[in-house]
Amino acid sequence: MEESKKILEGFIPVAKSNAKMFGPNCEVVIHDLTHPQNSVMFTVNNHVTGREVGQSFDHLVKTVLQAEDFKEDYLASYTSTTEDGRTICSSTSLIRDSGKKVIGAYCVNFDVEALSQMQKFMDNFLPAQAEPRVEEAKTDDDVENVEEIVDQLIQQIIKNSVHPAMKRHEKVELIRFMDEKGIFLMKGSVEKIASLLGISKVTVYSYLDEIKNK
Predict the structure, then answer these.
(1) CA nearest neighbour of 180 among 73, 59, 55, 6
(2) Distance set, CA 61 to CA 10, 86, 94, 152, 186 (Å)
């Protein structure tokens, strides 16, 4: 069993413990980022968001890594809305191996819809002025950390997909996957992907245009 798999499987008891402690509204998902295209390796209480083993990550790049508050490999208490309108409060922590390479993500998703409704009810009786929040700017180290994580994701995605007889439509679908996951939001991603695929930047942009036009 490879090291990364052993490390990630070591978090399964923690996931079960967290889910049991906080009840059925608490979902825990463990991602294996050495297999980005089907990164979900374990879920508990997955009725909260419907995450299934074998699916890919969704919010990691677009929401977590892009957030101003993402520091020290984690982002806590960010919210999203499900397709049926429920509010989900989430936290994501990255998992690294002994060589400090990012190999996974530990995600906790809590359905706070009932709490939100209760808070709205209480706010009608106990209005309060919220203290203004002061956000700290990302440091150069924070920016470099995010860039390194996305670089690893790009390399792993392409490593898992590229083969000598790769057809044009397969490359287009690979670009589509990375576009959907927010990879192209990162500066320099086009150049890196073009180099790893052995194609020009112009070709990558033409694939992106083709995807958007469809």
Answers:
(1) 59
(2) 24, 22, 12, 12, 9
Query: What is the CATH classification number for the domain harbouring 8?
Result: 3.30.450.20
Domain enclosing residue 97, as ranges: 3-122
- DSSP assignment, residue 195? H
The SS3 assignment for 49 reads coil
Q: Name residue 88's amino acid.
A: I
Residues 183, 85 within the same domain: no
pTM: 0.81
Distances (CA, A) of 205 to 132, 144, 184, 194, 202: 41, 25, 10, 10, 5
Q: List, for residues 133-144, the tens digit of each pLDDT value.
A: 666 666 777 878
Please say whether the beta carbons of 31 and 109 come within 8 A.
no
DSSP state of 45: S
